[in-house]
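FAQ
Q: What does a multi-component entry look like?
A: The components come first, one per line:
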Amino acid sequence: MTPSAATPAYRRLSVEERRSQLLEAALSLFAHRVPEDVSLDDVAEAAGVSRPLVYRYFPGGKQQLYEAALRSAAEELEHCFDEPREGPLVPRLSRALDRYLAFVDQHDAGFSALLQGGSVVETSRTTAIVDGVRRAAARHILSHLGVADPGPRLRMTVRMWITAVEAASLIWLDEDKQPPSDELRDWLVDQFVAVLSVTARRDPQTAALVDALAADD
Amino acid sequence: MTPSAATPAYRRLSVEERRSQLLEAALSLFAHRVPEDVSLDDVAEAAGVSRPLVYRYFPGGKQQLYEAALRSAAEELEHCFDEPREGPLVPRLSRALDRYLAFVDQHDAGFSALLQGGSVVETSRTTAIVDGVRRAAARHILSHLGVADPGPRLRMTVRMWITAVEAASLIWLDEDKQPPSDELRDWLVDQFVAVLSVTARRDPQTAALVDALAADD
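Then the predicted structure of the entire assembly, as tokens:
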């Protein structure tokens, strides 16, 4: 017996569709309130279903729902980094950042709560999901840079910049999304080029990369 | 009846001394193992006292001890930023970073566990302590920069760099403390100057600051 068969009063959805619908409702709630302030009742109401239905899909309760919503947000976030390996590098990075900032804009409070930590729904599993996104971002950037075997200095530079971008996103949400996202994007891209140039002074691999970037333009 | 009077077998210490001794023992354990793997028995053994004595000082158990140890580490960390307001700015920043990196080197596993989050002993209180250190670092830097009323772009630049430094410390611990700390320090200082210069292109306040820094040398 599938959950949707058990609830004939609702529009018939496949198990997968229903699950997606609940996750979507949860994500939109987590976007505007910290996880602590979202109850399963709220999720049921937002999705237009009964509380028992939510529990049937997420028997682990709010923690399970939160982790599933987080996983689905993480996948969405990783898609931001999908960018064809064509054309000059800097505009590619700008486009990926545009999508990333749109995601931050959309997910707002949930994004902050998640990255600021100390949330009651934070566990080693949620931390691992977030770390997975960070690692995916680093992989994408290094692959766009066309470096097959990045050395420690280049990897560290990329990871530091990703962290700085995260910090910028949180501050940006805190400061009522100022400066405008296209200005923030250009600023972050310029910072990336600047820190790469600093690393280039002490790392031949990064120096070659910076030369290639300059020739790119 | 003071705790030390109740335990005549131990060396007589004042309440404050005993507390410090226990915190020191706890910190040295947290430095080499993740908090999850440190028990109150371990702390008692390391301090050469009985388990009940540890509980007498920290009736809240490990969580309370951890928070107290964290607070004491946070104070120590904030002292790293104490730097006389004399001489050129870049060497001041270098000296503060030297002390910071020595702290990271010393506190090792505990430092990582704390900043990486998702720890079972992490709470909104521990997060607040860590955030307090970040804010103190930003205040110190802005005060050294001699900016009385920093605008949003300058503040954001400083906070992003502080986050990048944190990320660098964690990666550095992960990578067996490579590159050597003096090299890492110079690299971080150069990055700070580079990101300030990027911000200077879009912010007159930061531009004036970068000019002053250049005249400083």
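Q: Is there any commentary attached?
A: Sometimes. For this entry: The interface with chain A takes residues 116-120, 122-128, 152-153, 155-156, 159-164, 166-168, 171-172, 175, 178-179, 183, 187, 190-191, 194-195, 197-199, 201-202 of chain B (CB under 8 Å).
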